[in-house]
């Protein structure tokens, strides 16, 4: 079942040291260029978080969704689509069940990953797990709910651009570990259009680009949710995920993410 792993390797508010908004004695026009740039970036990020649902978005504890996912290789489709059920518990737990019988399961708990089949649970291959953990660390949820509050975070307004054939405001968030994520924001809805980051392969030392595009936003429990998510690797389509339904804050049990815990996929998730 290892061929199914790449399908789900898509598959995370006070600014630590970001300059504050200008007070009455210092208008935006008199701020140094660097501070004004960071201030503008902060305004766009705050608007985006509010558009996503504000506190409702920031306070999401878990999610339950189902849909269909497609994988690609060098931009060419490699599957007719796989049904999936996905459960997440912020910040670092995820369960993905595949096929109509939901009998192939991938579990992520902390920094560990497992593949569960009728043969039982097995540790995920090291490379596949490393790819998943990297994408989780650079996920939109982690960036907007964790990075943004860390000491030493830096914000940069990169100007206007085009993303997914739409006009966008471009903002980069960099943490104290020199990890950076660029987000393209719709100037009219303030919702994210695309997120991108790059990383250097430890083996061949080449730099790779990972991008995720969001579309078909719908309000669910006060949270604007993209029902279409596409991932690109070095410019080529790598996967697409289309949601059928999603719900938040169901009180999912930690037992769902335990590789050794019995769980009947035909029943409702334990609470």
Overview of the structural elements:
- By secondary structure, the chain is an alpha+beta fold.
- It has one domain: outer membrane lipoprotein receptor (LolB), chain A (Clam).
- Helix content is 15%, strand content 43%.
- Strands 1, 2, 3, 4, 5, 6, 7, 8, 9, 10, 11, 12, 13 and 14 form a 14-stranded antiparallel beta sheet that branches.
- A hairpin with a 6-residue loop joins strand 10 and strand 11.
- It is globular, with a radius of gyration of 19 Å.
- The protein starts with 32 loop residues before the first helix and ends in a 23-residue tail after the last strand.
- The N terminus is likely disordered.
Mean pLDDT: 87
Radius of gyration: 19 Å
Strand proportion, as a percent range, falls in 35-45%
Query: How many individual domains?
Result: 1
Structural category: alpha+beta
Query: What is the H/E string?
Result: HHEEEEEEEHHEEEEEEE
CATH architecture level-2 label = Clam
Q: What are the low-pLDDT stretches, counting only 5+ consecutive residues below 50?
A: 1-29
Brief synopsis:
The protein has helices spanning 33-52, 55-58, 126-137, 140-145; strands at residues 62-73, 76-77, 82-89, 93-98, 104-109, 112-117, 120-123, 154-163, 166-174, 180-185, 192-200, 207-220, 223-233, 236-248. By secondary structure, the protein is an alpha+beta fold.
Describe this protein with a few key phrases.
271 residues, alpha+beta, outer membrane lipoprotein receptor (LolB), chain A, 14-stranded antiparallel sheet, 15% helix, disordered N terminus
